[in-house]
Amino acid sequence: MAARISFSQYRVEAEIERCRAECQWDKIPTLVEQLVSARIHEDDDYGNLLLAEALVEECLQENMALLRSSTPLMDEDQPKLAKAKAHLNGILNRGRLGPKYVNEALLLMAKLHYIQGRYRDAQGMCARAAIDDLTQDEQPLYHLRLLAEAFVIKGLSLDHQAVSAASRVRLSEREEECLSCYLRACDTTLLYLQELDKMVSIPQKGAKMGVSPGLVDFDLGFFQLAALQSAYLSLLQKGHLAQGTHQLRRVLRAVDSRGSQSFRKAAAQKLAEVLLSSVSEDSYWGPLSPPPPAWLHREGAAAPKDALYPSFRPPQRYSMESSFCPQDVVEEAILLLLITESMASGDAVISRAPEHKEAREASLQDATSVYDLLCIGMARRGQYAMLSEVRSGNGRREVESMVGFVCVRCVKL
């Protein structure tokens, strides 16, 4: 009987870990009921922690537009958020969880404080969880997601706090702390997506075929997308073009995963935009080289930021052996735009159904912005006829030959 209960506990907890890693929040209440019926974790608040997390994540999914506009979510308008807060307050007050799950409750409370606009409280929860001391080794996969989101929440919370009374030295320290959080959040999220891709691609021992669907339609959550974007956006907004370009290249060199494809499309287009608008042919440096010292000196840095804040466990990156490397700024920009155009074409929504109107307009905007940038890049080479052929879809192979696109190891078309 004991062995049977032990196996049942292993099966249920393994399923919970998988659902938390894959963000399948709708399955959590049923699994919590199984915990209760099997009398697993009946002496602590583990079930309440799972319910609180599911409620918070469902609330985030339902309010993406408000989150993007930095509009705080209030308890009176969000019953799921109010219920989750009650669960978390009870968990932290009773203190019946072990240290590992207490940290998870603190990180979840930090997320809740952030989306309600209490940025100092969110930062305080991250400090209580000591996220800088947490490691990524020998932990469940969902732990990578929690850690990545905690880093970006800490960085965003610092960014949102008033700084009018701070000294110039303190402002500089805060900017550096924010950037270190963003860099660690980005690398951890990339690693999480890579490991998640491996998990759903390899059937688990004892699992039925088809239990874990592929991540073809996996959508990044608000904090996951913020973790991937915040580092390079912060650098570019502060005028650190060389370091922002370097960070974008680092991101695009990471081994691709199905969950990151939409983000990679946006990152490739952003890098092409920066190259065409801010890097002259005389000042260009190759993708595999660090930014020139002169650029770093102008930006007040002695080395790229990723060298100053290395990740404890960086994501996998493609090997550059025998790979094609662009030789000038236009060549790299057009290569990036061809990749982006290929992705945008594959994701295009052509249905005229009314419910697809917003998606169709977004697809049109994506295609228009890519072709606008292609016009700029090809005009610099006088390739007007070829640009017309690319628009019609007949000249992509010729354009790829023009830029010397002879290796697809670095990216997946």
From TrEMBL:
InterPro entries: Endocytosis_PI4K-reg_protein (IPR051722), TTC7_N (IPR045819)
Pfam families reported in the protein's UniProt record: TTC7_N
Signal peptide: none
Domain Tetratricopeptide repeat protein 7 N-terminal residue range list: 1-390
CC per GO annotation: plasma membrane
GO biological process: phosphatidylinositol phosphate biosynthetic process; protein localization to plasma membrane
Coiled-coil boundaries: none
Domain of life where this protein originates: Eukaryota
PANTHER family: TETRATRICOPEPTIDE REPEAT PROTEIN 7A, TETRATRICOPEPTIDE REPEAT PROTEIN, TPR
Name assigned to this protein: Tetratricopeptide repeat protein 7 N-terminal domain-containing protein
